[in-house]
Design goal:
The protein has helices spanning 3-32, 38-49, 57-63, 71-80, 102-124, 129-141; strands spanning 54-56, 84-88, 96-100. By secondary structure, the protein is mainly alpha-helical. The chain has one domain (3-141): Orthogonal Bundle (Arc Repressor Mutant, subunit A), CATH 1.10.10. The protein has a three-stranded antiparallel sheet with strand order 1-3-2. The radius of gyration is 18 Å and the shape is globular.
């Protein structure tokens, strides 16, 4: 492996480790407050962003920032907690929508301040504005599908 390849893998490893540590820290902060995992927030946020506060299950999997695996099981847990309800799509009998409930919207409101503070504390705390801008530029330049 040449020096450039070594640097590439060093950067890759740092990215993956930083990503996992940041997510773990946010999860720990939510857990300490007795709140659900970050994946719940991610799904609830995507549904809540819609004008009619609903989203097809297949679209949720494409939009979430975190793991796209097991979206159906996650929706099961959210529904059991009464944070979402499922309804069949009137135009397509096979399609299913998840609607956020008032309880789900309230959960988002409870989770956001903890999430925001965890990101500030465990991610952005040691970064200067120009470094944050550089990260944005770098991450947007990397086109991973």
């Amino acid at each position: 492996m040449n020096k450039k390849e070594q640097k590439i893998f060093r950067a890759w490893i740092a990215l993956i480790r930083t990503n996992q540590a940041a997510l773990d820290n946010v999860e720990d902060c939510l857990k300490k407050e007795g709140l659900p995992p970050l994946g719940w927030y991610d799904v609830l946020l995507e549904i809540n962003r819609e004008t009619d506060k609903c989203l097809r299950l297949q679209d949720i999997g494409q939009r979430v920032l975190l793991s796209k695996n097991n979206v159906t099981r996650l929706i099961d847990r959210l529904e059991k907690a009464k944070l979402v309800v499922r309804k069949k799509c009137p135009e397509d009998g096979r399609g299913v929508f998840a609607y956020i409930t008032h309880k789900g919207q309230n959960m988002l409101k409870r989770m956001w301040p903890i999430y925001r503070e965890a990101v500030k504390t465990h991610f952005a705390q040691n970064l200067e504005e120009h470094e944050i801008n550089a990260l944005i530029t770098i991450y947007e330049k990397i086109k991973i599908k």
